[in-house]
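Assess this today:

___
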Amino acid sequence: MLPNHKDALTLGNADESANSFPELSLYAGKSVFLTGHTGFKGGWLTATLRYLGANVHGYALVPDTQPNLFEVADIQSFLSSHTLADLADSTVMLAAMRAAQPEIIFHLAAQPLVRRSYLEPAITWQTNVQGTVNLLECVRQCPSVRAVVIITTDKCYENQEWYWGYRENDRLGGHDPYSASKAACELVVNSYRASFFNASGVRIASARAGNVIGGGDWAADRLIPDAVRAIAAGQTLQIRNPTASRPWQHVLAPLHGYLLLGKALLCGQAEVGCAFNFGPPSQDNLTVANVFEQLKIHWPQLQLELANNNNQAHEAQLLYLDSSKALNELAWRPRWLLSQSIEHTAAWYQAAYSNRLDMQSYTLAQIEEYLA
């Protein structure tokens, strides 16, 4: 049984947080509109923005797993406003956006799972493509907005099974509905930038991140959540594709990149109004089996067996991002190696399942350690 923490941590003065991390001090006091705040990445970004002193206004559906980070870490207590609604409801979204009067928007809401996209392709396309169109139409009717960061994925590239990293100018594509919908989302962003936002002065960029790990993810068909469920149930972990390699990184790594990108947009740096990759160094581009072995260091009881691959949906085998553009233009790089990311992830779940710690405080402590 997981803890249900209702006693929110008393945050320090916003100015103190800003002074501790001057590279992100711009967010102190800023109004931020964040879609997908009830999800895994959205929850961590909400907590990080609030830690930096921002006023965060969330727009999302109810969490789609039990348990979930939003409830376990009491993310709602970080919010200045909290709207539970669908991206398809443009009227509600516009009202929430106008009420928040944000200067910057981070758009994370999506259908984010490859395997689910095979089961629900229409919902995947509607959410990821039309949902983004609806958001950008609302931005056009909200004069307070100066910058927008649209989160897509590393899977938006036409996968060639290359051994080198994809760059931002490589061809977009996608075999499965999820990947293809995110490639289409990138085209939507490019079209709105050229057609509307360049002339209006609103800066818009897209962010493509690699596979993220971290405490509080209980989504289906992901390695770490599957491992956590197997350990909690005393079962053997079944993995589908042990030789597949992915650009693994802690969730705070790309979120830090999104914040640096948003800062550059708010500061009027027109040259960063484009796409950016946020992925780990090449040595952290490991196979599923490699990650499993590192997990066992922290969870010796974890046991592995190969799942039945009959009728398995297509998944890419090789995927690696070239993030040199983010390094050179945003001075961004992951601050934790994968071994550290796995250690912090395991520690978060162990703390949560111990039922002894305030997981909101624990989450903020990991944010502070990462940013420091």
In short: The longest strand covers residues 203-209. The first helix runs from residue 14 to 20.
